[in-house]
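R.M. (postdoc): so does anyone remember the format we settled on? I'll just put the structure tokens first.
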């Protein structure tokens, strides 16, 4: 283990109407055992009292290390880009204003990057908590539905640090299953962002999965620490599909934006045949199962569901499971057995 050289970490913190979360999130930063950091808090056009609350929370430490930037609302990724543009650190750490880092987060990630100069991006696991009740919903994101498939990828292991060795296989896993590469648990070398920024065209949460693929395509290696570094808090105002009580239509919209980004990807980067197949599998899954079967068919919106089924089959025309399910649903529609769900 190398002695840390005290490199500056720039914490990029987008914030949109998160006044109620600011106190705890800033306390979590000030509780970090790694202390050489700066904060770029990008207020993405908040209409609440974020700025006034922030002023009340300022300590001498924050006065010296926090820069507040207000911008017109452009979405979380546009705000992150603004923060990156203003960053001075050798490392960039993304931090969402409604989540909580555990005290060892920066220390462990910076240590991993210092010990392994061949790695450019390190991220870690997160537990998921219901903000309203305090209930622990998911103890480990890496194990939410069993051990994540990324553990089967070719990797080199150093204690809790796992370094991906096969870029193509890792990109394929990212497309099909994602890599649990939570931006808010990552510390990234600043050179990863040289000449590249997050795409803001679709305001898509799929950018969390696309940007790591961009980095890997550019030759940067990723690794993850198999340890909990973040408390991800579910609440009604989450921007993603993880929001508590999210309506069907909002969930459909989130998935639609992500799909638009996936469709645009082949024009942006050259994909191998294997990578393109993995991307098509993701597109098929999102159309057929997530939008079509779960959200539309499961809630009685049969005609819309069949439209999504067809798009999924178009992405994976030789997937027999998709075709079998399509015709089974057709039969159920014929005999009047369409689910009678709600359609908010």
């Amino acid at each position: 283990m190398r002695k840390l050289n005290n490199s500056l970490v720039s914490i990029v913190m987008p914030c949109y109407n998160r006044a109620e979360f600011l106190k705890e999130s800033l306390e979590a930063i000030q509780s970090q055992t790694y202390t050489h950091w700066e904060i770029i808090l990008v207020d993405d056009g908040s209409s609440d009292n974020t700025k006034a609350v922030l002023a009340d929370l300022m300590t001498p430490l924050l006065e010296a290390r926090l820069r507040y930037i207000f911008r017109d609302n452009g979405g979380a990724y546009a705000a992150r880009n603004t923060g990156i543009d203003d960053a001075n650190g050798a490392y960039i750490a993304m931090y969402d204003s409604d989540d909580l880092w555990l005290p060892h987060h920066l220390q462990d990630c910076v240590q991993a990057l210092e010990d392994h100069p061949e790695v450019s991006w390190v991220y870690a696991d997160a537990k998921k908590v219901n903000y309203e009740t305090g209930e622990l919903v998911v103890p480990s994101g890496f194990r939410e539905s069993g051990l994540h498939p990324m553990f089967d990828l070719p990797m080199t292991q150093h204690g809790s640090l796992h370094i991906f060795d096969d870029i193509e296989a890792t990109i394929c896993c990212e497309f099909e299953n994602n890599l649990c590469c939570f931006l808010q648990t990552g510390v990234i070398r600043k050179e990863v962002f040289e000449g590249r920024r997050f795409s803001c065209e679709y305001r898509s949460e799929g950018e969390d999965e696309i940007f790591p693929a961009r980095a890997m395509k550019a030759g940067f290696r990723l690794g993850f620490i198999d340890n909990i570094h973040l408390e991800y808090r579910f609440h009604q105002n989450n921007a993603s599909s993880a929001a508590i009580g999210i309506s069907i239509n909002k969930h459909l919209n989130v998935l639609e934006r992500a799909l638009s980004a996936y469709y645009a990807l082949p024009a942006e980067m050259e994909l191998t045949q294997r990578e393109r197949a993995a991307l098509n599998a993701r597109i098929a899954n999102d159309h057929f199962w997530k939008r079509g079967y779960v959200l539309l068919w499961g809630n009685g919106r049969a005609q819309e569901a069949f439209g999504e089924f067809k798009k999924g089959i178009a992405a994976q025309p030789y997937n027999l499971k998709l075709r079998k399910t399509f015709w089974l649903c057709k039969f159920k529609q014929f005999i009047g057995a369409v689910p009678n769900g709600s359609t908010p």
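R.M.: ...and that's the designed sequence above, right after the tokens. Also worth knowing: The chain has a mean pLDDT of 93. The first strand starts at residue 9 and ends at 15.
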